[in-house]
Amino acid sequence: MADAVLDFARLKRTGTAEAVLCASKTPAQIDHILALAAAAGKAMLLTRLDAAAFDQLSAGHRAQLVYDQLSRTAVFGTPLEGALKPGIGIVTAGTSDLAVAGEAARTLLFHGFEAPVIADVGVAGLWRLMERLEEIRDFRVVIAVAGMEGALFSVLAGLIAAPVIAVPSSVGYGVATGGHVALNTALASCAPGLVTVNIDNGFGAACAAIAMMGASEA
Amino acid sequence: MADAVLDFARLKRTGTAEAVLCASKTPAQIDHILALAAAAGKAMLLTRLDAAAFDQLSAGHRAQLVYDQLSRTAVFGTPLEGALKPGIGIVTAGTSDLAVAGEAARTLLFHGFEAPVIADVGVAGLWRLMERLEEIRDFRVVIAVAGMEGALFSVLAGLIAAPVIAVPSSVGYGVATGGHVALNTALASCAPGLVTVNIDNGFGAACAAIAMMGASEA
Amino acid sequence: MADAVLDFARLKRTGTAEAVLCASKTPAQIDHILALAAAAGKAMLLTRLDAAAFDQLSAGHRAQLVYDQLSRTAVFGTPLEGALKPGIGIVTAGTSDLAVAGEAARTLLFHGFEAPVIADVGVAGLWRLMERLEEIRDFRVVIAVAGMEGALFSVLAGLIAAPVIAVPSSVGYGVATGGHVALNTALASCAPGLVTVNIDNGFGAACAAIAMMGASEA
Amino acid sequence: MADAVLDFARLKRTGTAEAVLCASKTPAQIDHILALAAAAGKAMLLTRLDAAAFDQLSAGHRAQLVYDQLSRTAVFGTPLEGALKPGIGIVTAGTSDLAVAGEAARTLLFHGFEAPVIADVGVAGLWRLMERLEEIRDFRVVIAVAGMEGALFSVLAGLIAAPVIAVPSSVGYGVATGGHVALNTALASCAPGLVTVNIDNGFGAACAAIAMMGASEA
Amino acid sequence: MADAVLDFARLKRTGTAEAVLCASKTPAQIDHILALAAAAGKAMLLTRLDAAAFDQLSAGHRAQLVYDQLSRTAVFGTPLEGALKPGIGIVTAGTSDLAVAGEAARTLLFHGFEAPVIADVGVAGLWRLMERLEEIRDFRVVIAVAGMEGALFSVLAGLIAAPVIAVPSSVGYGVATGGHVALNTALASCAPGLVTVNIDNGFGAACAAIAMMGASEA
Amino acid sequence: MADAVLDFARLKRTGTAEAVLCASKTPAQIDHILALAAAAGKAMLLTRLDAAAFDQLSAGHRAQLVYDQLSRTAVFGTPLEGALKPGIGIVTAGTSDLAVAGEAARTLLFHGFEAPVIADVGVAGLWRLMERLEEIRDFRVVIAVAGMEGALFSVLAGLIAAPVIAVPSSVGYGVATGGHVALNTALASCAPGLVTVNIDNGFGAACAAIAMMGASEA
Amino acid sequence: MADAVLDFARLKRTGTAEAVLCASKTPAQIDHILALAAAAGKAMLLTRLDAAAFDQLSAGHRAQLVYDQLSRTAVFGTPLEGALKPGIGIVTAGTSDLAVAGEAARTLLFHGFEAPVIADVGVAGLWRLMERLEEIRDFRVVIAVAGMEGALFSVLAGLIAAPVIAVPSSVGYGVATGGHVALNTALASCAPGLVTVNIDNGFGAACAAIAMMGASEA
Amino acid sequence: MADAVLDFARLKRTGTAEAVLCASKTPAQIDHILALAAAAGKAMLLTRLDAAAFDQLSAGHRAQLVYDQLSRTAVFGTPLEGALKPGIGIVTAGTSDLAVAGEAARTLLFHGFEAPVIADVGVAGLWRLMERLEEIRDFRVVIAVAGMEGALFSVLAGLIAAPVIAVPSSVGYGVATGGHVALNTALASCAPGLVTVNIDNGFGAACAAIAMMGASEA
């Protein structure tokens, strides 16, 4: 059978490690990849691993995984050591966005960053965001997660100087099904300093935030 | 040739008069309709009449039209008499939205309503909206015009109790081309009391606002 | 864990209370929100709560909820007191639209309005609408629910003076899958006084209707 | 140069003659095709021939063409002889739909059918359609042309027994740009006996109407 | 509860009877409608009734229904009497299209027409169509069902004089998912005499075919 | 100013030379690129060079270009020498497809292949294709160009053994605007041996045909 | 019941045999087709046969099928004899693309070709592709499978002279859901010699590769 | 007339100044805004100002503007003083992307950053990028501009550690028309550290790059 080829050099080359997107892989394929990681003595992050798929992995691998159901992430082995680094914050428009925020937070943790989550500050009740604004202004990079119409992205990016990484979430119905409205809102925003990643891509937002933090150390 | 059939009974039946959407009509067809209105002794509102089309109308009709180039509207004959009624306000996110706001304002004027325009209060600079908020809260119905990502709709509807009629404008580029992002933002909004009309449809928003004002008198 | 932030001030600020859209929340998250509402002594409306999710809520909360399966709504605690107010009517094109109509009716009830439902008057059999027209003309605000091609919206708005809030329903197949055709029909309508909300958004239509009724009292 | 291959056998095989869609052809290509028709002694219908393209044809060909600017059709040579046949009617929602209706009417005329046009009976003013209903019920096949939201299609097909061929027209703006809303309305209609052709395809509707008339003679 | 309003007058008015689209109705709603039909002494056609929904109907109603699983149709009561009428034929591109063809055939049968099905003559193997061409040419109206790219529609309509009603089927994957490619192929076809109904709409195609047959008797 | 970087090594690496897509370049940029080619002593193919842009190039460069207006291609310098190679054929559905066919033919000529064009054999008149079938079966690779519904692709690929490269052309209106229907027809085709390139991409089809011919020599 | 019509002549006519796309067929229909193949003494390839459908086939047919779950293909009877032919290679961007690659490989095997699979060489870690490049350059035709953004297609086609057949896979989420981004990337690529088939169409890519190999023998 | 409301506080609040998007404004509106800026003594950046609009501005304003036609940007007044800051680089896939790259470069210059442009390194000729890789690795933030299929984004972000801001450009035809394919490629990329802005939004990319640089100084 054709082999998986893991990109262990990615961490050194790009500053973030390869992760395994489990959504379209069979349990056998995931087990195979974990065996490769174990053989190489590498820690590994798994994303989009839903509970049913987790349950189908080999018992040995399940025992070595730290699994979080809401964010559908699992960590295999021991990631980076040392004190957790501050500077990145995560803001969500609603409670429903916490799964995506969790994927971002767990990815950051895997790479040694601790990122507080400020939840449920959508702009339909503007006071909720305003109450937390000073706290948000202390972050050097902000990840914002919002579904439905995503108006949070523009308002937030118009109020702070840090770069804002919009993560549109697939929370919504009717025209908002799948997260495309929130995505387009982020892209079409008039506010400066706003950039976007794919719908529900908490992992990618975390990687980009790490890259931005790294930029400051060059 | 097949004849136009004007719905002069619409004003009595629905509270707003039929208007002529000129965009897809030839100058000859518009002249023909104006002749019918003149014969019936009726005033008439023309929308989407761009300058080039206006110039091709018969000289006689041009002389009887009060034309406004920015909003591409023209009034034929004398509309409703009496003091102008207050209660409806128009809010725009940017300068570029003034053409659509003008179509709404001129439609309201034709029906006897005076609607102030509060322009350029988009939420990328939130203080601009906040400065005018008390003024806006005095309106009984608010028409809001915004293009690009249309974040104004959600923020505004979350702050006031009056019904807000979103008019997405076709101001934007890239994903925002044609106004579809602003439209979807309005439809997907989490804010209560927000309703939507077609892109650039200042005329329709005005008719709906009039219907809402009428509801209060029943 | 990050906390939900409920916007209890919304009722005072906008005239309608915050509701909880349950579709993308876990049962644990919904239980958490209900606990916050209980602690604050507030009544709360839950929407998009399907039977499977309802069954997974804590027994204590289930006992305090008045649940309606067809409309997927539940009421927690005691809503507004006093006599139910008239003036808003709901019209549907077909039997299949009754779930969405139910969400609107139950939202109105939560806010103190009684809204009769006139069902199954789609325009493929025009006599059905005509038979009920006088009754419909008595409403000060009309909510219209239709799926498939949504031709009801235009015909209805062309016949009455009250504002008509179109709620496209996701009833249909082929090109009509998801309700987008009915939505676009509402937006593109030539009839005056017609406004639109998101597909299946009975809740939003009810909030907008309340705002329109409020406009009449200012 | 590669030669055009005209399908003169189509009339015999299918009951309608090949026509030349001029929109994407150069004047030289159209002149070449007309020369082939002349050489074969055949009459020919040209569609989508706008005024600018007509003016660039060779003077000899221009002299032999009967050109109609509104419908952008031209007839080359002498079509079928004999008395014009009745039975097909054309109904339009608005004045703006007359160009497409004209393409259908001229195509029918080329094949020996006379089709009355009943214009401007869109359902936003339902009485206009009702006034003409008995007249419409006399047709054996009805071609209906409508843009914007195309609600006419459903209402009309729900009222008569003859087959209705919907021709969505590209009359509209915002979501209705290009005629896609009217097309989808026709396809999603709940009304029986309704079939559809491509946007603005008056020619195709006419060919289908002729085929339906032919069915009755078999 | 709001009542269903059945359009029993439709048969007389339009030549085809109202049918019940079961896909978006609860079993309780379908049972309610059948009770109304029974009370009125009317036969009724049910479409899009999948096996699971059929099993949830009341035992009494199930006993009175003639159910066909492949086409998901059921007949309640006794439809039109008398000898079955010929003249309409059904052609399919593949075996997978037989479910949709069955909906058309059963609808025709309900209205007193017997329609032979000529299956699996898609044009990737052109000889299959050519072998049956003379047989097809004998029909006065042809219903053609095809999914994937739907090339059958153009080839067939280019070969025969009868009107062809294209029914795009939702058979396909990738770009063809949902039947939109076959639909657009039918609409964009260069072949004359071709008209289209919604994806998978075998019922609508049958109603239109009946209308076309009726045209011949006027 | 930032410099263009020409990929003169592409011919050796991939078997086809880099060409200059002129559509989105200014005349100054094209002149700059031609100067680089002249300095390197390389022949160069220009595509999408419309007449207006050609006229704005420097007189010196215009004199060295062999320009073809219909295909909007120009050849700069002297391409490959030696006898023209046979084996590739080009088939078009209509006269309107000849511009795209010309881009393919001129690209092939630049690389030393002579490709006959068999034009106007669309399947609405199937006999036109059948008449030329033996001739087409002699090609080792066939490029097929079609717009509208593109039914030619499936029929052709179902009849011959050579690989067929579909080039959807942007010939069409309504749903077929821009060539997307023909593209999807090619992709969704049930016929074997059919592959596709971008809409109007005659250049890409020619490059692929050359690669396929090359495969036979390995 | 209407019969399936198998195109056993396809192999001789086009070089590749008809296969049965099982996705939209009932088990009864598949069993019926297998019985026809058995009666004709023909081998047959089944695609898109998922495990649940396989289990519903008749026991007799199951025993005669060689089934592969990952690629969802099954072979009935004995395909072509003789030594397996080399020359075609399959390259995938990720592990998730192996199911589609498997459909291609099994189709090739059915027709007598052995195609090595070079897996997991996506360009986010460019070294993985570079390491295998010489091996890939030895193939006369390359099938490339990639989901997500499909950047592999352009990079690969820019590096080799053999024709590259892109098979976009439906691996991805957010904007990449369904494989449309990878498809469009393949179509819009600037790299020469690249052609495309439908999303997930490993079968079609294999048929095209065989046609291209055949071209070399003509 | 309603007044423009300039957000001069934006620079202090967010680190980047408000710019005027001229594309949908009349010359009179732009002149009005420039007068406000002059009165406030502020420098101002104008974007999307095409040559025809520039020529219609008042002579006085034209004299004070430094206009660049390729990037369609103009600077009014004197921007920030002091030495230009390094650290941001711009990379383009093709010559056609230089207009968008110019908008980014001029925006950066207005804010005091000097950004080198490395042009024409698209991955169809991978050596072009590889030759410049070390140079690119020295930037702390990279803006990448690409149209067509945008494969450059993934390859580049997979090779360097700095954050990459993708600016999809509207360079392309067929499926790539309008830049949507390049946009989706950037969003769907598997490469880490990649974020996206709207199509052609060089201005927004520059603002985001400045925010990222600022993050490093906190």
Descriptive report:
The structure is a homooctamer of 218-residue chains. Chain A is α/β, with parallel strands linked by helices and 218 residues long. Chain A folds into two domains: 10-76; 88-217, Rossmann fold (3-Layer(aba) Sandwich). Helices cover 39% and strands 17% of the residues of chain A. In chain A, strand 7 (141-146), helix 8 and strand 8 form a beta-alpha-beta unit. In chain A, helix 5 packs across helix 10. The longest helix of chain A has 14 residues, at 27-40. The first copy, chain A, is globular and about 50 Å long. At the D-F interface, loops of D face strand 6 of F.
Q: Could you state the oligomeric state of the chains shown?
A: homooctamer
The total of helices of chain A stands at 10
The tally of domains of chain A stands at 2
Q: What overall form of chain A do the CA principal axes indicate?
A: globular
How would you write the strand order of the largest sheet of chain A? 6-5-7-8-9
Terminal Cα span of chain A: 43 Å
Describe the structure concisely for a colleague.
The first copy, chain A, has ten helices and nine strands. With 218 residues, the first copy, chain A, is an alpha/beta fold.
